[in-house]
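Person: Please comment on this record:
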Amino acid sequence: MLAYQCQGNPSMPAMVLLHGFLGSKADWSAVIEVLAKQYYCISIDLPGHGQSLNHTLPTPGFDACTALIQQTLLQLKVQQYHLVGYSLGGRIALHLARQAPENILSLILESCHPGLKSADDRAARKTSDALWATKLNSLTIENFLALWYQQAVFADLSASKRQAMIQQRRGNQALALGNCYQATSLAEQADLWDTPAIISAPCYFIAGSDDQKFLSLATRWQQQYPIAMYAVAASGHNIHSAAPIAFSKQVLQLLKPSSFNPSSNRPT
């Protein structure tokens, strides 16, 4: 069973929140302060993160990871839930939705990739991820984080915010992170673009207005499949960190009875 934290009234509809790579269940604290007034919020530490360090994954590890999440929710007696996932957590959420669609009330994805379509793209990503894994194993965690947050996808972070993020993440353990990183690499992920058309739950994508890569991806996705994209102003890749109140309000707006129809996978 994975480490978790619950907040809110268990009699309310459940909401499961999955963090991104390098994160932990604590990343959702500011968001949950808002959401827990209407939902029973369960934030989970993914394998290799937070207090779930002892859980290692095979490669590929998506099935093993989703099985651990389902085991955790079974222990909590949570059967149906709204599922929110950021980046890596969003990719795991997609796998979970495909494996247990009957449990998903809605799927809310933040800045996550639905999968690479070509063998060439997967091979290139595998090479890139192997380089990052080598850096993770050879550098100090502080030096690795400094390089990680220099990536273009984090360009919206100011120098002070980048440094704060590094300080926040420096307690991570390289060996545990490396296992999760390679086991859940985008190169190992299935092509899940058609998930919104396969599952009955409504699907939403939240992107940051400054994250051009994922705005473009989400736009393409909603043109092809029944997933609705929403942009949050003044935020980049990690919206729930940069703008937690705006992110929370967007989630609540999506799930309002007037706009949320659990019997259809098309937002009304």
In short: The longest helix spans residues 119-138.
